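A reminder from the course coordinator: this example appears on the midterm review sheet, so study it carefully.

Given structure:
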């Protein structure tokens, strides 16, 4: 059963109140009015578990979310942790296949939000609500290091790996080279393993994730083409729970303003956004 939850954001904007000059004959040494705080914004929303923000995620998508030594970690994980802290909540990540996340969120019983490097699209926005964007992305083409392939067009007649349900799959199907075949996988690590094994000749996927994967030189994979799609990621919420979206947006704005976002970005991408 869902629990109603009200949250007051801790950060308050301070507004200076100017002292009002007294009328003639009044003493000029009377103290000025005290600075006045703006009222804290209040959000009402529901959570599956009282005091805990549960995120559904495809936790095989480094560096945004992945499992290492039994622990979920990554850029999205650190962002959700910072947001939950601002809202006075604990947080938890639960693993799901990417193409099952929207249905799971709509069900309203498994997790409160999606935090899974999900691109904001008009089609998805008809089913779920998105937060403000928190990072930009493009698509990319990855091949084996010994391959002669340089562009997506070079994959005519060949097999192209994608992750099922992603914008990478959509882009590939919409720009499919003549005679090429799209091969969907449950997660991107499976697609990259198939590429290494020669089961596909290229993989189309979000650039930040593929860039992280090819850093492992033992995979012997390289990115040969950036495919400009001008995507933005957002956290996602059930349309029946707009207060949670608004609370997360307010907390996200806070961590961007106070430098927390920059610190998290630098930790995972090695540079300032």
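Designed residues:
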């Amino acid at each position: 059963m869902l629990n109603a939850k009200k949250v007051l954001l801790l950060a308050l904007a301070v507004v200076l109140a100017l002292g009002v000059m007294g009328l003639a004959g009044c003493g000029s040494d009377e103290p000025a009015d005290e600075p006045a705080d703006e009222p804290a914004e209040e959000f009402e929303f529901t959570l599956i578990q009282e005091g805990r923000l549960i995120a559904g995620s495809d936790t095989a998508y480094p560096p945004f979310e992945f499992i290492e030594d039994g622990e979920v970690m990554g850029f999205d994980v650190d962002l959700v942790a910072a947001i939950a802290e601002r809202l006075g909540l604990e947080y938890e990540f639960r693993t799901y296949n990417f193409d099952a996340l929207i249905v799971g969120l709509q069900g309203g019983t498994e997790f409160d939000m999606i935090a899974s490097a999900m691109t904001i699209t008009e089609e998805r926005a008809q089913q779920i609500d998105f937060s403000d964007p928190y990072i930009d992305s493009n698509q990319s083409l990855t091949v084996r290091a010994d391959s002669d392939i340089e562009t997506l067009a070079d994959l005519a007649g060949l097999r192209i790996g994608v992750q099922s349900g992603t914008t990478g799959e959509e882009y590939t199907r919409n720009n499919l080279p003549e005679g090429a075949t799209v091969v969907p996988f449950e997660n991107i690590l499976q697609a990259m393993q198939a590429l290494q094994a020669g089961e596909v000749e290229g993989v189309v996927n979000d650039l930040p994730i593929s860039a992280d994967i090819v850093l492992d030189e033992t995979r012997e994979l390289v990115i040969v083409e950036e495919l400009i799609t001008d995507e933005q990621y957002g956290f996602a919420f059930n349309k029946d729970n707009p207060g949670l979206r608004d609370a997360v947006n307010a907390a996200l704005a806070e961590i961007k303003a106070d430098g927390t976002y920059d610190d998290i970005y630098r930790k995972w991408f090695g540079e300032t956004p």
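Residues 46-134+234-269 form a domain with the D-Maltodextrin-Binding Protein; domain 2 fold (CATH 3.40.190.10). The chain has a mean pLDDT of 89.
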